[in-house]
Amino acid sequence: MYSRTMLKVRTLSNNLKMYGSTSSNFVNVSVNDKSGVAIVTMQREPVNSLNLELITQLKTALSDLERNKCRGMILTSASKSVFSAGLDIMEMYKPNQERVRNFWLSLQDLWMTLYGCSYPSVAAINGHSPAGGCLLSMSCEYRIMLPNFTIGLNETKLGIIAPSWFVATMKNTIGFRKAEMALTLGFLFTTEEALKVGLIDEVASSKEDAIAKADKFIGQFAKIPPQPRTISKLMLRSKDIETLRKTKEQDLQAFLQVVNDPKTQKGLELYLESLKQRKA
Ligand SMILES: CCCCCCCCCC/C=C/CC(=O)SCCNC(=O)CCNC(=O)[C@H](O)C(C)(C)COP(=O)(O)OP(=O)(O)OC[C@H]1O[C@@H](n2cnc3c(N)ncnc32)[C@H](O)[C@@H]1OP(=O)(O)O
């Protein structure tokens, strides 16, 4: 069965310590001794919003799994209602320039690592998965979602534009026409709608069921030689990864320009207020 933290997630690297961050553990990795399949659980309460530390720890966990030649990886959340709320808006609101730069470069790195990993990857989406949460899900090879949640790239609804690699990932997942509709509307799909449009592959009745279904999906590769599998996957995915690798700095500058625009800062302030007011 799955033993907790068999693969230790390294705590924050030295370059993050200079921001005075504490080395909290936002990612748990457990590996099934028999199958060699790892469950990577995001555990940054309350909504797994992707801050620099969560992003860095996810990237480290995925790279460690690659080095340890894991048989497959299931990405999920410790929350009962949110897979991931996407990027942590606090990282972009009144940002420290060095930190926000690192934040974006780390996100690029995480995406390239997850999208191009050699092992089979499944998202067990056990909660809402907007924006960056949807990106993580789509970057896996297979998606299993629980009912009554939402998923999608809702950036345009927030008055912002999803970066080109978010767009490419969605286009590769559901096709041009459906991606165009979803992106321009900033559409958040319900679980049923996501299944219909092909944004997810299966619906599960519980987290346990999702993990069982993910194990079954990954199990299919036991009979497939790993190298041809990986090469085939990368033939489909490497063009978009290479595009970002080559334009990392340009993409960073475009992000910094948007984030540092006073209009964006005002928008972020209002959005943060609206998130808080929803509760009141
Ligand atoms: C507006 C962004 C401008 C960015 C400008 C730069 C442009 C380039 C970047 C483009 C890429 C963007 C990709 C992204 O991922 S942007 C983030 C988009 N995410 C969302 O819109 C999701 C927002 N959250 C929700 O809809 C809900 O929280 C939820 C996920 C459906 C969960 O709902 P639930 O009721 O369970 O929880 P609450 O809403 O009460 O939230 C609990 C607390 O968490 C805070 N919260 C929620 N989401 C975020 C977030 N993404 N970042 C930071 N904080 C978040 C929320 O305010 C509550 O805080 P509180 O307890 O202190 O009130």
From TrEMBL:
Record-level GO cellular component terms: mitochondrial matrix
Major location category of this protein: mitochondrion
Keyword Repeat: no
Reactions listed under catalytic activity: (3Z)-octenoyl-CoA = (2E)-octenoyl-CoA; (3Z)-dodecenoyl-CoA = (2E)-dodecenoyl-CoA; (3Z)-decenoyl-CoA = (2E)-decenoyl-CoA; (2E)-tetradecenoyl-CoA = (3Z)-tetradecenoyl-CoA
Compartment annotation: Mitochondrion matrix
Signal peptide: none
GO molecular function term, any single one: delta(3)-delta(2)-enoyl-CoA isomerase activity
Pathway(s) where this gene product acts: Lipid metabolism; fatty acid beta-oxidation
Domain of life: Eukaryota
GO terms (BP aspect): fatty acid beta-oxidation
Keywords: Acetylation, Fatty acid metabolism, Isomerase, Lipid metabolism, Mitochondrion, Transit peptide
Functional summary from the UniProt entry: Key enzyme of fatty acid beta-oxidation. Able to isomerize both 3-cis (3Z) and 3-trans (3E) double bonds into the 2-trans (2E) form in a range of enoyl-CoA species, with a preference for (3Z)-enoyl-CoAs over (3E)-enoyl-CoAs. The catalytic efficiency of this enzyme is not affected by the fatty acyl chain length.
Assembly mode: Homotrimer.
Alphabetized PANTHER family for the sequence: ENOYL-COA DELTA ISOMERASE 1, MITOCHONDRIAL, ENOYL-COA HYDRATASE-RELATED
UniProt name for this protein: Enoyl-CoA delta isomerase 1, mitochondrial
Provenance organism: Agrilus planipennis
High-level lineage: Eukaryota, Metazoa, Ecdysozoa, Arthropoda, Hexapoda
